[in-house]
Amino acid sequence: MSALLGLGLAGGVVSCALAQSEKEDESSKPGPAVEATITKAVKALYPGAAITKMSKNEDDGFYSYAVALTAAGGKVDAEVTSDGTVIKTTAEAAVKSFPPAAAAAITKTAAGAKITSASLTTAYAKVVLSDSTGDTQTIHVQKLPQPDVTYAVAVETDGKTGKFSVGADGTVVKAMKWKLASSEATKKE
User: Fold this and answer.
1) What tens digit of pLDDT does each residue of 22-35 get?
2) Which residues have C-beta within 8 Å of that of residue 8, sequence separation ≥ 6?
3) Is the pTM of this model over 0.85?
4) 3-19, pLDDT tens digit by residue?
5) How far is CA 132 from the centre of its chain?
């Protein structure tokens, strides 16, 4: 799994076997040229990956593509623009593969709770909303000078689930947020 965390994975060919769901709207799928551009961008980060799904997302007027893939035996989700700019990737990971300071902070914060999943998110760009004159605003993607990596876990304890993330140095990036576990929420209805 730690091989998945690095970008220096062994070379290979990206298999573009996109999942075809009967319920999926065809307008959410990229055209052939955009699909090729997105595939090339994903291949640059994860050689040998198999793309399992690609669909268009819209968030307040910003359009990107959600790409699900498997690489080195693990699941990876990516957000990519139509021009091939990778905004971020989120890969399954093991806490023991995290930098020591991040793993220690996670262990301390999750004390007494069961860690149910762990992931590594790498941001390569950010979406920026710029103020313009009048009522119009522009949305653009700004590449980061270097990738920003965060380490996240989902935990469970006493009928609640929670999520939080830390940086490589152990600094909390997103504080713990708790909610009732779905089985507990169903019981209370």
Assistant:
1) 334 456 778 889 99
2) none
3) no
4) 333 333 333 323 233 33
5) 30
The CA distances from residue 155 to 77, 99, 142, 162, 186, in Å, are 20, 19, 32, 5, 19
Q: Is the separation of the CB atoms in 48 and 83 below 8 Å?
A: no
Contact 119, 28 (CB under 8 A): no
Spatial distance between the Cα atoms of 77 and 170, rounded to a whole number of angstroms: 23
CA distance 25 to 58: 14
Q: Name the CA dihedral angle for 109, 110, 116, 118, rounded to a multiple of 10 degrees.
A: 30
Listed by start position, the domains of the chain span 1-87, 93-189
> 136 with 40: CB under 8 angstroms?
no
- Tokens 């359009």 belong to 63
C-alpha 50 chain-centroid distance: 16
DSSP-assigned letters across all residues of 115-150: EEEEEEEEEEEEEEEEE-STT-EEEEEEEEEEEEEE
Cβ partners under 8 Å of residue 10, min gap 6: 47, 48
